[in-house]
Amino acid sequence: MKKYIAFFRLRFAMGLQYRAAALGGLVCQFFWGAMAILAFKAFHDTDPSAFPMSLPAMSSYIWLQQALLHLLSVMSMDGELMDMIQSGNVAYELCRPVGVYNMWYIKNLASRASGALLRCIPALIVAALIPAPFGLMAPPDVITFLWFALSLVLAAVVVTAIGMIVAMITFHTVSPRGVRLIAVGIADFFSGGIVPLPFFPEAVRRVTELLPFSATANVPLRIYSGDLHGGEMLFLIALQVFWAVALIAVGRLLEWKELKNVVVQGG
């Protein structure tokens, strides 16, 4: 366990060095969030009865989504691992006396956490200073915040596991770009990254919420904004636990199969 903690600390510290990149990403995410809120505001003003979330809840959802984008988006998967697979340098990783899946998983999780830390604190402070209903509101109560924190950790575990599965698939490709783009597009749509799931038609939403992508950003962001509570919240958190276990198991199975018959390209 100590070696994996060391991997996490090293990758986390490395991620904190990229402050200029984080600042650039933060500015981009802030303006993107502002445009999204204004677009939903126009939709709300057209027909408030058709709006499935309150405007303050929607604003909080979007600000949290932008602040935690690096943590909760499949887009933030470990590019270094895919580059190693493509170049053949993955052979050096296989020589280490550690479980390679565990090592890659921990590094990916640390990279996500460090990138999110650099971006989220200033973003959330600025968003909290914006007047209602366009700013980030506080959670309804302390209990809701604790459920949000638990769900956020589970979401990070799930999205990292999805990224690892995508990485394992790239063992069958010459370039990881295509697989990565497809995975990001599917995950962003079904996780509520483009349109929050409450805006989906009821029948589609019920099916979508059962998919592993819903167990990423959708659950913690809706809990914080107060849109998700009670039995439905507990069910979706339990589903997060299920998908975390299932996706890690699938990733480890793929790792065993791919590394058993790996052919290194390059060298």
Short description:
With 267 residues, the chain is mainly α. It has twelve helices and no strands.
Structure report:
- This protein has about 270 residues and is mainly α.
- It has one domain.
- About 70% of the residues lie in helices and about 0% in strands.
- The protein starts with a helix and ends in a 7-residue tail after the last helix.
The N- to C-terminal Cα distance equals: 31 Å
| Structural category | mainly alpha
Q: Helix tally?
A: 12
- How big a fraction of the residues is strand? under 5%
Rg for CA atoms: 19 Å
Mean pLDDT: 84
Number of strands: 0
Order of helices and strands: HHHHHHHHHHHH
Uncertain regions spanning at least 5 consecutive residues: none
Helix fraction by DSSP (H/I, runs of at least 4): over 70%
Largest sheet properties: none
Please, how many domains?
Answer: 1
Global geometry: globular
State the main characteristics.
267 residues; globular; 71% helix
Compile the SSE list and pairings.
Elements: H1 2-15, H2 19-46, H3 55-67, H4 69-72, H5 79-87, H6 90-93, H7 100-129, H8 142-169, H9 177-190, H10 202-208, H11 218-224, H12 230-260
